[in-house]
Design brief:
97 residues, six-stranded mixed beta sheet, 3 helices
């Protein structure tokens, strides 16, 4: 399940982890500001974003946004952004795949 913040949707697991203190609030704020800017401008070159892979079956292109030690994995669908996970670099790729 995803929750809407503007046209940016966060997986419910991300919000639960923020409430538990597993993701620092200031890290979430940095990511949220970045995703809001991306959503408004539709420009993926504003930040350190790298394309990860294309899922043919789901017709999605996945991306990684880097902010310090943390990474966010997301995809775009129409004009919306769906964030799958936010975590430290050493953990995020294991969780995502």
């Amino acid at each position: 399940m995803y929750y809407n913040v503007y046209m940016v949707y966060y997986h419910d697991d991300i919000l639960k982890r923020i409430k538990k203190g597993q993701i620092p609030k200031e890290v979430f704020i940095h990511f949220n500001n970045a995703f809001t800017a991306i959503e408004l401008t539709k420009d993926l070159t504003l930040f350190d974003i790298k394309q990860l892979k294309v899922s043919e079956e789901k017709m999605r292109t996945y991306y990684r946004l880097r902010k310090g030690k943390y990474r966010a994995i997301f995809y775009r669908q129409d004009s919306d952004i769906f964030i799958i996970t936010i975590d430290k670099r050493e953990e995020v790729y294991r969780k995502w795949q």
